[in-house]
From TrEMBL, chain A:
The keyword Cell division does not apply. It comes from Paenibacillus spongiae. InterPro entries: Cyt_c_oxase-like_su1_dom, Cyt_c_oxase-like_su1_sf, Cyt_C_Oxase_1. This is Cbb3-type cytochrome c oxidase subunit I. Keywords: Copper, Electron transport, Heme, Iron, Membrane, Metal-binding, Respiratory chain, Transmembrane, Transmembrane helix, Transport. The chain crosses the membrane at residues 20-41, 62-82, 102-127, 139-162, 189-210, 230-255, 287-305, 317-336, 348-368, 380-404, 416-440, 452-473, 493-515, 617-634. It holds the Pfam family COX1. Belongs to the heme-copper respiratory oxidase family. Residues 42-560 form the Cytochrome oxidase subunit I profile domain. The keyword Glycosyltransferase does not apply.
TrEMBL record, chain B:
Residues 23-121 form the Cytochrome oxidase subunit II transmembrane region profile domain. This is Quinol oxidase subunit 2. Its EC number is 1.10.3.-. The gene is cyoA. Its main location: membrane. SUPFAM superfamilies: Cupredoxins, Cytochrome c oxidase subunit II-like, transmembrane region. NCBIfam families: CyoA, QOXA. Residues 127-239 form the Cytochrome oxidase subunit II copper A binding domain. The keyword Transmembrane applies. It comes from the Bacteria. It catalyses: 2 a quinol + O2 = 2 a quinone + 2 H2O.
Amino acid sequence: MWEKVQNFASEFFVTGDPLIYGADVSIAVTLIAVITVLTYFKKWKWLWSEWLTTVDHKKIGIMYIISAFLMLFRGGVDALLMRTQLAVPEMSFLTPDHYNQIFTTHGVIMILFMAMPFMFGLFNVIVPLQLGARDVAFPFLNSLSFWLFFSGAMLFNISFVIGGSPDAGWLAYPPYSELMYNPGVGQDFYIWGIQISGIGSLMTGINFIVTILKMRAPGMKLMKMPMFSWSVLSSCIAIIFSFPILTATLALLFLDRYAGAHFFTLDGGGNPMMYINLIWMWGHPEVYIIVLPAFGIFSEIVATFSKKKLFGYKSMVYAMMIISILSFLVWAHHFFTMGSGADVNAFFALTTMLIAIPTGVKVFNWLFTMFRGKITFESPMLWTIGFIPCFIVGGLTGVLLSVAPADFQFHNSYFLVAHFHQVIIGGVVFGYFAGLYYWWPKLFGFKLNERIGKWAFWFWNIGFYLCFMPQYVLGLMGMTRRVVSYGWDKGWYEMNLVSTIGAVLMGIAFLFQVWQIAHGVKHRNANLDTTGDPWNGRTLEWSIPSPAPHYNFAVLPQVTDQDDWWERKLRKQEGHATPAPAKLEPIHMPKNSGIPIIMSACWFVAGFGFVFHWTPFIIAGLAGVAISMLVHSFNYKTDYYIPVDEIVRTEAKKGRVTG
Amino acid sequence: MKLSKAYKRLALVAMPIVLLLMTGCTNNIIVLDPKGPIAEQQRDLMVISTILGSIVVVPVLIMTAVIIWRYRDREGRKAAYTPRWEHSTKLEIIWWGIPIIIILALGVITVKGTYALEPSKPLESEQKEITVQVTSLNWKWLFQYPEQGIATINELKIPNGVPVRFEITADSPMNSFWIPQLGGQMYAMSGMAMTLYLQADEEGEYWGSGANFTGRHFADMYFDVESMSQEEFDQWVDEIKATSPALTLDGYKKLVEPSTSQVLAFSSFPDQLFEMTVTKYATSHNHGLSTGKQDKPQGQQEEEEEPSMDHMGH
Ligand code: HEM
Ligand SMILES: [Cu+2]
Ligand SMILES: [Cu+2]
């Protein structure tokens, strides 16, 4: 009996590596610490009713962003481990198996569990405020999306200590990801972690499209909508068309592994190339899904900190919509070397290059927003200025990659690794950081220390160039991606060492950011944002107090202009009378619900069952999902009204007089 | 603001180091140091497209710096400030126009290059081409020379100045066959044989590698490449024929088993080994190569097709 348990445990838990034991211990310690603190301060109830069951888009957004930061940490540790391994030739810090798992989890976590939730966090926090709305279109669904993402992320992350992590790269190409070559449970964790959170992503996409189309404040025509909201719309359109492809593709891979189907196997009529096509039909749009909102953020920030209207609003809108559509027509540029023939390659090379045109236009528009502006350099603007040259260079190398015959030499090399990190870090990560710094006061009601922020900025930037510029050279020296080590004979020594130093600098930069946030929380009372408009903003979110009250707007704003808030401020300055505030009315709000978190937990159980082929878990989990849905369907007490006197009190506390 | 000076100094120190390192060891940048016609044309394409791209990128980078510097907010600034200026048809036409023109030029070059450098297109040459059949195994490369009747592991020798027709497949997860100084890569996929023409124009030693991740010892899939005169090549073939063992079917099955390998040579190999490797995945024929893993549904048997050497599925 005991032996059986032991055997089981040694297969169930990942063993044999000091790093893993270290992680086990730290996970256990953290869990115990969290539970102790919550119990000691009697915070369980508060946690449940204020956060875990909330349907408030702002709180959901904050939970997304916290998760994203945790995942940035995990993905960043992965990155540092890899860079340590690659620092010098013939290093044996990580075994090949371990390295393979780490580049896989790093990629998956960074894209799906860091960038996506960071982005959804910003959508959640800002879009309803920018639109002058009280919440998203479907608040319950929104909460469910978050918890599905969270369950998926956790399921993926526990593979680290239970069962073993996936090791087939972030896109899990078959046949390597099939049972034949990959019999462990790692790939199943991959499939279910992504599937569960992917459903959440799809629902978020739908939710925000409806929110943007239906919930805008009266008078806000589409062509008066703030640019960030436009970017969210374009991103969500790409989400609703691409995520179903991902779900279907992974479902087929799952059937191959679980039920012995032959969709992508080499035998039984399967074809791995089909998977590669399908996964990139999602994968390429995915990279635009995450970068478009960053473009939106930069557009808002450039205008605000140049104190000038965004240049070329219309062409910005067209450019984003064109990118959103074109991103579905370029997927094969990820495998020019599959031998599809000159016709196919030429077509996809051309469509890829076409995307450079609207992207280039956006850069010009940002530049000409600054042109004849009055630029100041607070954190959000610094990140934006860091972004522009980085993205221009990354865009150039992207165009080089799209030259199909040349890509035969770039493909799968470090040149590619350098390129996508340059556009992803320089574009997406810098963009979300910029957004976070920009909207931080709105989220939390206080400002962050600018000096620590500048340290973080410079460390990120210098670290970035040190880390990734040498990798372009390494690619041209013939170094392929995903290699665990290399010999002395290739002459890759210096570049790799520099690259690792750069990575360490970025690690330090991250610590500066953590410090900045801790410092901000500690000294928050000295840095309160009492105006609600700390940057002299232009759009509606700055018209309400910081942090926004839970109903957002005491009275829904009547919009007349693009940059409505800015225009209102100007009119006031010019001495026009401000219209008397409208009469308050009770506000209709959605009620909290525990169902999303419970249902997602059931998904987690079912996913776990699928991973280990434990049928009772699968049945229990899916039954729980079905029951949660039923319970929700028969729950009619889903909303309530905030009475007028409570609104008056809340507004007064935030220093606002109401009519 | 003492500190901000410190950052600037830091940046000033860091940047030259990067530049120095980037230019310091050019002799290793093998992709830019081609030794054959394909790699050479690919290098030229890289250079041309970089120059074309730079025509836009460099001025834009300079413009960025100038704009940020000139329009920064400070006391006594003379530069204009026009907070409502947000549209100019003329300007917007210009910068939809500039990228369109550059992309048009690049597009023409790319399409031409794509057809010219289509990997399966035979190279024009006075010399008669030789064929090398390449199989990616876990984790080693098998090279078969059907015309010479020999085979090697992890070592590729080719006659200089002669077009080489590589036929590429995999008896492993998908890999990619890459010899940077001779030309770009091509996927090695089970169940199909891809064609890639390369040629070396200079005698010398190069190397190649697997470029698509295949698992545990992926990083060991390097192989030596040597381009030598026709006489030396013939001599090498004769020597292998005289001194090396034969590769048997059982020997091949051993090679397929996951392991790394040293350089090996074989004086002969089983007839049609490469074709069998390809077709054992492409059809339900087993050709004595079955690994026993393929459990096929009954109905499959009827759908047998002629084993095809073509690239299936596109
Ligand atoms: C912060 C500094 C970062 C460093 C130092 C870093 C480093 C690395 C390294 C060393 C690899 C493995 C290369 C290989 O072995 O082929 C890698 C792969 C990857 N990284 Fe990062 N990375 C960073 C940030 C990011 C971010 C922010 C993202 C995305 C949002 C990202 C996405 C990826 C992806 C998708 C891969 C490919 C994984 C695969 O090969 O399947 N990385 N990164
Ligand atoms: Cu792509
Ligand atoms: Cu193919």
